[in-house]
Amino acid sequence: VFDRRTGAWVKDREWHPSQRLEPMKDGALKMTLRVADTPELVGWILSFGAGVRVMRPDSLRDKVKKEAEKIFLGE
Prior knowledge:
The chain is an alpha+beta fold and about 80 residues long. The chain contains three helices and two strands. It is globular and about 35 Å long.
């Protein structure tokens, strides 16, 4: 889920052929993708900074969280 500001930019591009976009009532944008769980995916998600939240699967959300913590902690 992209926040309003990030979603306004994300919606204008096709990131993957499987993407589905769903505007949310609060102005956020929900993107659903069918892609492999790879380190490149984690990096792509992190490139949006605080403008994105991974909702599921839990395993991907955990990987993104761990990488973000490494950035914060300087590991």
